[in-house]
């Protein structure tokens, strides 16, 4: 099927089209991205130290028409939008006032095109993004999902109802949150020229150098990315009252495949800036705890995540007398030390989970897993990817990760997740994905959804 996807769950507005078929030798569903629009709002929120839902919602309102127009004019399809078989939309989890805008736009478009609307779970979309680059990946697979709002281990058994089981979650913060908090604590924007605007507490820096600069990073490797800063007049003409500096528009790119998993960076994310800073730092310089090690807590022996203590330890270091994070070497050392502790914790917990699979949690043991998948925004981090690959290798499980561009929020993963469900031979997968007229801000992966049988053309 050819699916148009819409993503507005948080602070990225995405509209993308994925055309998929089973033409290849293996008979697996393979997707080709024919159109991809993504407008990020990191500048908009930079001065506030986090995403401001009301501002995010207004930016979605302004950006959605641009995204939809982009899809109309550069669908990459012979028949234009008339070739679209279904509209997919992130229906949750996410910020209600943001989801609302994407959902309304999706309903309108589906009605206009007279095609079914598929509700997509944002977390399942993060997970399934891995299968766009690796169509041959088979169930069951174990997933580490590490994003801005979630950090969890998921066992994916099928695309159908109850096919995704959440095995463990974080006891406190998500890994992405910890990266973001630490990035602010070490004033990452002072040290990464290309990420100006990232210092939350310094409004004078917000926006400087954004736009074309930030887009350049996002497009590295694909060669087909158009990045530019909208003028206020253009933004107003597009119906927006918001400051849209930093809008990154990606035009039609090559099909996403393993070969795109190169040195692409995801510009604009605090975590990505922290990763770059950490690359220049001495990880031995600052002793930091590895969470959930030692002690006999009730989670001992069972995989779980905790990042709040580590995050606070880093903040304490940054605020201690004699430590000046404005010195690049100091900031880089703290960043590197934090990243190593966090990644070591992730490795520990993955090994526990894989060992549990071996001990019977999964029939046939870890070796019967089709894959270990790492996804969500933090999966763009190369240390995290390397740690996951190492754990997978120990247990003889192949590892898959979406290319960095598909790790952070985007509409391609939404369209693709819907395509997988539409194509699935399990009717339950389609029923699960289909629509009753509302979005669901709290929707756990694999949870049942009310069923609406769509009118097919
Ligand atoms: P959720 O998917 O849980 O609803 P979200 O959609 O806001 O949350 P994502 O877009 O999946 O989150 O991920 C964003 C998070 O990933 C941010 O915390 C960001 O700092 C982090 N991140 C992005 N790139 C990197 C990187 N290279 N290293 C570490 N963290 C990163
Ligand atoms: Fe996300």
UniProtKB/TrEMBL annotation:
Residues 199-218 are annotated as: Disordered. Residues 33-188, 271-416 form the Gcp-like domain. It catalyses: L-threonylcarbamoyladenylate + adenosine(37) in tRNA = N(6)-L-threonylcarbamoyladenosine(37) in tRNA + AMP + H(+). Its EC number is 2.3.1.234. Keywords: Acyltransferase, Metal-binding, Mitochondrion, Transferase, tRNA processing. Residues 208-218 have a biased composition (Gly residues). It is found in: Mitochondrion. Its main location: mitochondrion. Gene3D superfamilies: 3.30.420.40. Homodimer. Required for the formation of a threonylcarbamoyl group on adenosine at position 37 (t(6)A37) in mitochondrial tRNAs that read codons beginning with adenine. Probably involved in the transfer of the threonylcarbamoyl moiety of threonylcarbamoyl-AMP (TC-AMP) to the N6 group of A37. Involved in mitochondrial genome maintenance. This is N(6)-L-threonylcarbamoyladenine synthase. It comes from Cafeteria roenbergensis (Marine flagellate). The lineage of its organism: Eukaryota, Sar, Stramenopiles, Bigyra, Opalozoa.
């Amino acid at each position: 099927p050819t699916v148009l996807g819409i993503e507005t769950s948080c602070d990225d507005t995405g509209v993308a089209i994925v055309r998929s078929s089973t033409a290849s030798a293996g008979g697996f569903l393979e997707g080709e991205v024919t159109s991809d629009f993504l407008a990020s709002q990191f500048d908009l929120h930079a001065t506030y130290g986090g995403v401001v839902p009301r501002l995010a919602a207004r930016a979605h309102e302004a950006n959605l028409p641009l995204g939809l127009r982009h899809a109309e004019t550069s669908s990459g399809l012979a028949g234009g939008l008339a070739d679209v078989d279904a509209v997919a939309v992130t229906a949750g989890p996410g910020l209600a006032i943001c989801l609302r805008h994407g959902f309304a736009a999706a309903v309108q478009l589906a009605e206009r095109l007279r095609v079914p609307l598929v509700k997509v779970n944002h977390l399942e979309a993060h997970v399934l993004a891995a299968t766009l680059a690796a169509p041959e990946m088979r169930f069951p697979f174990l997933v580490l999902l590490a994003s801005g709002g979630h950090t969890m281990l998921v066992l994916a058994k099928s695309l159908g109802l109850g096919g995704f089981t959440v095995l463990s979650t974080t006891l406190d913060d998500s890994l992405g949150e910890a990266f973001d908090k630490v990035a602010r604590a070490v004033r990452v924007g002072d040290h990464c020229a290309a990420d100006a605007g990232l210092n939350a507490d310094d409004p004078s820096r917000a926006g400087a150098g954004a736009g074309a600069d930030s887009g350049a990073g996002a497009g590295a490797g694909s060669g087909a990315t158009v990045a530019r800063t909208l003028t206020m007049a253009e933004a107003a003409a597009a119906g927006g009252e918001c400051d849209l500096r930093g809008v990154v528009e990606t035009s039609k790119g090559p099909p996403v495949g393993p070969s795109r998993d190169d040195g692409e960076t995801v510009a604009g994310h605090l975590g990505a800036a922290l990763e770059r800073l950490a690359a220049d730092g001495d990880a031995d310089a600052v002793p930091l705890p590895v969470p959930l090690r030692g002690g006999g807590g009730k989670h001992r022996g069972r995989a779980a995540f905790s990042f709040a203590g580590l995050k606070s330890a880093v903040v304490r270091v940054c605020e201690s007398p004699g430590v000046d994070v404005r010195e690049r070497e100091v900031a880089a050392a703290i960043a590197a030390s934090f990243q190593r502790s966090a990644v070591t914790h992730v490795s520990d917990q993955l090994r526990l989970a894989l060992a549990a699979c071996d001990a019977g949690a999964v029939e046939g043991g870890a070796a019967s897993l089709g894959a270990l998948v790492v996804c969500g925004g933090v999966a763009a981090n190369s240390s995290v990817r390397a740690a996951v690959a190492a754990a997978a290798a120990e247990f003889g499980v192949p590892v898959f990760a979406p290319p960095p561009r598909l790790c952070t929020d985007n509409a391609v993963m939404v369209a693709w997740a819907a395509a997988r469900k539409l194509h699935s031979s399990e009717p339950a997968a389609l029923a699960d994905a289909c629509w009753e007229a509302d979005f669901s801000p709290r929707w756990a992966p694999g949870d049942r959804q009310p069923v609406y049988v769509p009118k097919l053309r």
